[in-house]
Amino acid sequence: MNDMHEKEKSTTAKVLEISLEGYQRTDDPEFLDALQNLLKVDGLDTSRLVYSGFDGSFIEEHKPCPRGPGTFAMNEAGWREALKAEHQCPAKYAEGWDAPCIGVYDGSLLREVYDADISDYPEDPYKRADIEIKEFGEDLKDLEPGTPVMEIVAHVNYPDDPEASPTDALLRLVIIKDS
After folding, report:
1. Cis preceding linkage at 122, omega within 30
2. Rounded to 5 degrees, what are φ and ψ at 7?
3. Which of 1, 55, 91, 93 has its CA 20 to 30 A from that of 29?
4. Helix, strand, or coil here: 125?
């Protein structure tokens, strides 16, 4: 078994599903509440989780989760702030893909990115945006509870470990289903 295969295997996260109720939209606070309840029932402490929306087509095709040095993500406080400001949240972003999915990450393994160049937003669901990180911020575990996280995050070990990715902190993949 080669190192890459072991790395892919180590990033396999449990897959859950959440259905939109007839009255519910992904940019509705009730959707976030339902998502967090689902995660609590599944045994997660939601206080330090971070969420990112993307295309989950790779799940059905049994491919590994795409990797990159950073990903756009929000914690609960950031998500709620985005909803109040009528900005896009992870679930709303995911809606635009063939297989809407929310990645749920262990925030204690991530840190904020204060400055980055983004040169490509691929339409290929197996690739992430080309993010070149220029300046790192705080480790998310060091932020006060309730501090919004609303931009790019990176793994705490990156760039010391150039293979480190937010994908390594992935706990769950939540597929959004229409009811």
Report:
1. no
2. -65, -45
3. 55
4. coil
* Dist. CA 155–CA 166, nearest whole Å: 5
Q: Which two tokens stand for residue 157?
A: 């070990």
Q: How far apart are CA 133 and CA 156, in angstroms?
A: 13
The region of weakest confidence among 1-5, 21-25, 125-129 is 1-5
CA 152 to chain centre: 10
> 110, 169 in Cβ contact below 8 A?
yes
Domain boundaries, the chain: 3-178
Residues in the chain: 179
Report the number of secondary-structure helices (H) and strands (E) in the chain.
5, 9
Burial of 155 (0-12, 13-18, 19+ CB in 10 A): buried
